[in-house]
Amino acid sequence: MTKLKELQEKREKLVVDARSALDEITKNTDESRAKELEQRHDTIMGEFDQVDASIAREERTAKMEHDAEERRNRHRPNPGGTEARGSDDDNPVEYRDAFHSWVRSAGDMSALNEEERAALRAGQAPREARAQTAGTTTAGGYTVPTELSNEIIKSMKAWGPMYDEDICTVLNTASGHPIDMPTVDDTASTADKHTEAGDVTNDGGKDVTFGKKTLSAHAYDTEWVKFSYELAQDSIFNMETLLGGLLGERLGRLTNRELTIGDGTGDPQGVVTGSSLGKTATATAAMTYDEVIDLVHSVDPAYRSSPKVGFQFHDTTLAALRKLKDSEGRYIWSAGDVQKGVPGTILGYRYHINQAIDTLAAAKKVMIFGDFGKYFVRKVGGVVMFVARERFAPDIGLLGLVRLDGRLGDAAAVKHLITAAS
Predict the structure, then answer these.
(1) Angle between helices 114-123 and 95-104 (to 10 degrees)
(2) How far apart are alpha carbons 301 and 305 in whole angstroms?
(3) Quick one: CA torsion of 19, 21, 23, 27, rounded to 10 degrees?
(4) Mean model confidence pLDDT for the chain
(5) Checking DSSP bridges between strand 349-353 and strand 309-313, what pairing results, if any?
(6) Residue 350 to residues 9, 28, 345: CA-CA distances in angstroms?
(7) What is the pLDDT of residues 169-181, one digit of tens each?
(8) Domains of the chain
(9) What whole-number distance in Å separates Cα of residue 134 and Cα of residue 407?
(10) Cβ–Cβ < 8 Å for 156, 246
């Protein structure tokens, strides 16, 4: 059984165990026992999230292995007997370049071409055999180099999903000139009964009223981040690639925040900001099954049939939703099926974790529901990474910049649930 298969089965078992803990809580369960069972449920769901993350890593690793196999196929000698890559390069491969390639391939020598492998072999020192100990400095420890892992521990923080074109409607443009989007809301108008031979009203009272919403191009940058020429040469990591990735994540967190809660004045109008009230909870830091149902049905059925309909909320809100049941004792949260690619759902609708949305507290918009296809994200090109070498010479500078805007085209398409003020 593969590790991925084991993780998937463990994930399913954790769901069963978590629900079993909650199912033990009845009206006759004393308070201390109920609290113990809830804590057990939370512990199991914490492990569930870890397993979910492990599954995602395994899937990424499998993809990397597949890509590495493709690279190996490309690097095999061609029928003419020459190397498929690098044979036309008059400049010899240096040891440092070959070493960086080896690090980026996670130590996979087969992912390197013949010239890179030769450069590595040429730069390696012969093995040292000695009887003295490495643990004592004067007995030989001074001769033992300090090694650095080829993996860097990088702290993570989730961001998304408002920059994702699979969730919102994304408009990619080459320039940043304003885009006007005509709007019309004729839902309150109806036709009238016609009387035979009667005069048809012609007073303009049923004329259609149009409006517009404008998408601009607000710019955001990471500020310059500099690193020394010496660090660029001496680090086993490609600092330009490493820092560039971190700056890209900074822009990702910022853009998701603005597209979620931006006030629309000099910034994008966030989807929460543009949403209309769907339901007010009776509690300040909790919600009920009935309130979630009311939120769903505050959105017109025309929007609920959209392929991009769903929920968004903070991860801590998901923890609370996992414990809610309907009137027949069924959980409103479904874990989905990762083996079949079925996503998790709330009341049968997909949900997206958005850490820019408020957590459960008094007078907070903690959940939104609706057709996110009605939220328009305007991107001017893509994320641009500037590299300045001469300006900061001999140091190197990196700067990330993005231009975008966002606006909810129809406030009726997305509704929010707000907690009680007190």
Answers:
(1) 110
(2) 6
(3) -150
(4) 83
(5) parallel
(6) 22, 34, 5
(7) 999 998 999 999 9
(8) 3-75 (1.10.287), 157-185+211-422 (3.30.2400.10)
(9) 63
(10) no
